[in-house]
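2024-03-11 09:14:02 INFO worker-7 job=invfold-0412 stage=load source=structure_tokens
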């Protein structure tokens, strides 16, 4: 009878194999700097509605989104607040851990995967095939795949087709303040949670984690005297922050090791999250189960067992937020 391998050797061998494979998978999932910091590649398609050959039009453009993706979620929230659901249809794609990319439930534009759509728009394309995508059905082209630019276009370029055209989420008098908040929040919070979760060294993780919670503390202090980031009205800065905050306690706190504090533990940030969630039609863009599936079920290097948590209970998001008179915004969003 053969003797079993000693436990120490089993552990050492398993750790070596897993660590080697983990670094290999992470190199494809999350490009890194020499110090192990996650580096997010730039979006490649940066054209704009309102410039030739992309005039504003209802029904001509389509949004491709993943329900778990915070960047795509920004476009869904802006589309909902502006009332553009009839003017700009959406197609939901799902991540496939086997194929390593987004796939269509049914073939669309002659494509089975989002990567094929990218190749259709630009033959030979070898970059990342990400969501969101603003697609022009007439020219069969990707107009833009940068969420921060798509939401600016949704805010301003489709007002003649919007149910809520007077709502301006990027008003001229606040643009400088909005841009300043975005410049602070994007690297430390929106991308900061990924810099924590995708860090490949302890030092890189700790640096990202410190910057994340330092910035959350800064936002918490600002919200003590302001209902929203830029005053008493919702702006695109709030939209961009909201989609990260909504996922924080669900995913980033545990899976991405952002566990110094939950958003619900912050007096102002927790109430602020509830405030935006309760705006008309915003909650309809929030799909808890899709978020858990896409993070826990598909990020194999971070959750190799694939076990998806049963919680949390999101009923608390409908509790009164106390952020304004009558707990309602000062502007009217059509129901």
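2024-03-11 09:14:09 INFO worker-7 stage=emit residues=335
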């Amino acid at each position: 009878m053969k003797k079993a391998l000693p436990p120490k050797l089993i552990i050492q061998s398993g750790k070596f194999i897993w660590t080697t494979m983990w670094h290999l998978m992470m190199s494809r999932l999350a490009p890194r700097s020499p110090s192990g910091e996650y580096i997010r590649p730039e979006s490649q398609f940066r054209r704009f509605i309102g410039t030739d050959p992309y005039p504003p039009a209802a029904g001509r453009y389509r949004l491709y989104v993943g329900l778990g993706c915070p960047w795509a979620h920004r476009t869904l929230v802006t589309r909902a607040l502006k009332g553009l659901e009839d003017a700009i249809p959406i197609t939901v794609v799902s991540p496939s851990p086997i194929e390593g990319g987004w796939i269509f439930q049914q073939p669309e534009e002659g494509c089975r995967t989002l990567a094929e759509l990218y190749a259709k728009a630009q033959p030979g394309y070898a970059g990342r095939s990400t969501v969101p995508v603003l697609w022009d059905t007439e020219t069969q082209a990707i107009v833009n795949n940068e969420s921060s630019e798509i939401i600016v276009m949704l805010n301003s370029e489709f007002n003649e087709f919007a149910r809520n055209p007077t709502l301006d989420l990027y008003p001229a008098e606040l643009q400088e303040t909005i841009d300043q908040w975005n410049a602070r929040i994007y690297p430390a919070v929106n991308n900061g949670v990924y810099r924590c979760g995708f860090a490949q060294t302890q030092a890189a993780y700790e640096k990202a984690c410190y910057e994340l919670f330092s910035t959350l503390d800064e936002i918490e202090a600002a919200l003590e005297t302001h209902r929203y980031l830029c005053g008493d009205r919702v702006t695109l800065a709030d939209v961009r922050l909201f989609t990260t905050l909504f996922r924080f306690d669900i995913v980033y706190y545990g899976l991405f090791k952002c566990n110094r504090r939950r958003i619900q533990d912050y007096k102002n940030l927790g109430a602020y999250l509830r405030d935006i969630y309760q705006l008309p039609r915003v909650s309809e863009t929030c799909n808890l189960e899709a978020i858990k599936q896409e993070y826990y079920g598909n990020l194999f290097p971070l959750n190799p067992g694939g076990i998806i948590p049963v919680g949390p209970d999101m009923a608390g998001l409908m509790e009164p937020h106390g952020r304004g008179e009558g707990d309602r915004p000062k502007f009217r969003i059509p129901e």
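2024-03-11 09:14:09 INFO worker-7 stage=report msg="The longest helix spans residues 7-29."
2024-03-11 09:14:10 INFO worker-7 job finished
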